[in-house]
């Protein structure tokens, strides 16, 4: 008796349908947080049809397209599950539509004004930046009009790096 296409699959049924060993499915669950089979008592896994479709896409990207696990993780992060599902189904029109919508969203985000996160605790002086003036003339202020978008992005990245360094130092102490 065949199951309905909407029925849940056990790990053995999913492995057979996907032509994968069961241990690979278990391993992929640890690497791809998007694969979330329903687990019943005793840890028995039941894969939903969406899980099967997603795994088909991941399998295609890893085995047929030659992507690494990190590469597929990045695709999932950037484009979402539906992109990888569409790839697994071979739905070229859906893949192009999703890619175009993500590209339009990225362009919109890039065109919006970037905002620096946080405020500095210390006030850097002009002397600190090698401009030869002392503290009495006040701190250097970041005029939004004088900084290019690239420079602002570099400063933002440096801020994140410094905050991560501080976090690591705080852990050591």
From TrEMBL:
Q: GO MF terms on file?
A: DNA binding; DNA-binding transcription factor activity
Domain named HTH merR-type is located at 10-78
Keywords, comma-separated and alphabetical: DNA-binding
Q: Which InterPro entries match?
A: DNA-bd_dom_put_sf (IPR009061), MerR-type_HTH_dom (IPR000551), MerR_fam (IPR047057)
Check the record and name the PROSITE patterns matching this protein: HTH_MERR_2
The source's superkingdom equals Bacteria
Which segment of the chain is annotated as a signal peptide?
A: none
SUPFAM superfamilies xrefs = Putative DNA-binding domain
Query: Which SMART domains does the annotation name?
Result: HTH_MERR
Q: What PANTHER family does the record point to? A: BLL5018 PROTEIN (PTHR30204:SF15), REDOX-CYCLING DRUG-SENSING TRANSCRIPTIONAL ACTIVATOR SOXR (PTHR30204)
Annotated protein name in UniProt:
MerR family transcriptional regulator
- Which organism was this protein described from? Nitratireductor aquibiodomus RA22
């Amino acid at each position: 008796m065949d199951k309905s296409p909407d029925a849940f699959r056990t790990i053995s049924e999913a492995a057979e349908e996907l032509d994968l060993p069961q241990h690979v499915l278990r391993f992929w669950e640890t690497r791809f947080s998007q694969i979330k089979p329903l687990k019943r008592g005793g840890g028995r896994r039941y894969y939903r049809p969406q899980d099967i479709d997603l795994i088909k896409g991941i399998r295609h990207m890893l085995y047929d397209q030659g992507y690494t696990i990190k590469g597929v993780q990045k695709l999932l992060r950037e484009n979402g599950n539906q992109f990888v599902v569409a790839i697994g189904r071979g739905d070229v029109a859906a893949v192009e539509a999703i890619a175009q919508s993500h590209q339009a969203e990225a362009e919109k985000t890039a065109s919006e004004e970037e905002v620096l996160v946080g405020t500095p605790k210390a006030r850097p002086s002009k002397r600190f930046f090698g401009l030869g003036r002392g503290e009495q003339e006040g701190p250097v202020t970041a005029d939004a009009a004088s900084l290019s978008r690239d420079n602002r992005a570099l400063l933002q990245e440096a801020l994140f790096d410094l905050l991560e360094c501080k976090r690591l130092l705080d852990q050591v102490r």
